[in-house]
Amino acid sequence: MTDLLNGLAHLTSMLIIPSLAYGSQLALGALGVTLIFGVLRFSSFAHAEGLSMATAVTILFTVWLQGMGVSLGVLPTALLGMGLAMPAMALVFIGTDRALYRHFRRVNARPEVFMIVSAGVMLMMSGAIRLAIGADGREFEDGERFILTARGFRDWSGLAEPLVLKTSQVLTIGLAALATAALFWFLNRTQAGRSMRAYADNRNLALLSGVDPDRIVRLTWVLVAVLSVLAGVLFGLDKGYRPFVCQQLLLPMFAAAVVGGLGSPAGAIAGSMIVAFSELTLTFAWKKALTYVLPAAWAPEGMVQALSTEYKFAVSFLILVIVLLVRPAGLFGKVAR
Question: Residue 148: beta bridge partners?
Fold first, then answer.
C-alpha cells in the first residue's frame, strides 16, 4: 500500500497537477481564440503575442506597485497588476481594431486578409514588448511560492515521495474556473451576452434585430483582453516570463480550439485539457511511477518516455492533424450536412 501511495503522490505532483494548471492556462487562451473566431470570424495569429504583451504590461504595473510598497502578503502582487492591465489591454485591442481590422470589415475582406493583418499586428506587438520591457526574461513572482512543500508533505504523510503544490498552480486552476464560469454566465444570462451569441450565429439576422455591431466588437475585445491577461500572467507566474515564450502557446491554443470545435467555448475548455494531458503524458518519464506499482522483477530500466520533452509541441500538431482528418468540426462543433 505504501508503494502505491508513493506512486500516486509522484503522479499527482509531477503529472496531474501540472497538467491541470497547463490545461487551465491553455483554456483561457483558447477561449480568446474562440471568441475572436466566433464573433469576428477570423483566426488571429497575434493572439499569443497579445498574451505576452498583457504579461509585460502586468509586470510594469506590478513593479510600480512593489516600488510603492504595495503587497498582497502571501499572494503575488501581480494579482493587483492584472486588475490594472486588463483595461489597458482592452484599450490596446480596441485601438488596434479601429486602426486596422475595422477597415477590412467594412470592405468585407476575406478571412485570409484578416489573418495576414493579424500577422503584422503580431510583429508590431513583439517590437513594442521588446522596447518596453527588453528581450530578457523577467521574474515577477513574490509572496509565498509554495502552498505545500516537499518536506512538509513528507513530515505529514511519512511517504518517501513528496507532493508539491505551488501557489501559482492553485491560482491558475482557481482563477481559470472562476473566469470560465463568469464567461458562461455572461454569454447565457445577460442581454449583451445573448446579443454576442446571436451576432456570432447569424450576423445578418442579428443586425436586422437591432444589434449594434460596433458594440459587439468592442465587447468581444474587452473579453479577449481579460482572458489574455489571465492566461499570460498565470502562465508567467507558473513557468516564468520571457518575451517570446508565449509564441510557443500559439499552436497548443489553436489545437485546443480546433479539437473542441472553433466557436465553441465549452469545446475550447475540453480541447485544452485534452491537449495539455496528451502533451505531458506522452513526454512524462514513467520509470519511477512504474517502479512503485510493478513487481521488482518487472521494474523498468529506461525512462519509459514515449517522446522527449523537446517534442512536446509536436503532440499538439499531431492532435490537430488527426482532428482535422477525422472530425474537422471538432468535438463540440457543428457538422455540416
Answer: 165
DSSP characters for 230-280?
Answer: HHHHHHHHHH-B-TTGGGGGHHHHHHHHHHH-TT-HHHHHHHHHHHHHHHH
Query: Residue 143: what pLDDT?
Result: 85
Cβ neighbours of 210 (radius 10 Å)? 7
pLDDT computed for residue 335 by the predictor: 55
- Tell me whether residue 333 is in a domain: no
Total of domains in the chain: 1
Cα distance between residue 52 and residue 176, in whole Å: 18
| Integer Rg of the chain from CA | 21
**CA dist., res. 61 & res. 82, Å (int):** 8
Confirm if 258 and 320 have CB atoms less than 8 A apart.
yes
* CATH of residue 265: 1.10.3470
Q: Is residue 336 part of a domain?
A: no
311: domain range? 2-326
What pLDDT digit, counting tens, does each position of 278-337 carry?
Answer: 999 999 999 888 888 888 788 788 888 888 888 888 899 899 899 888 888 888 876 544
pLDDT of residue 121: 95
Q: Looking at the domain assignment, is residue 335 inside a domain?
A: no
Beta-carbon neighbour count of residue 225 at 10 Å?
A: 23
Take residue 127 and report the three cell numbers written for it. Answer: 517590437
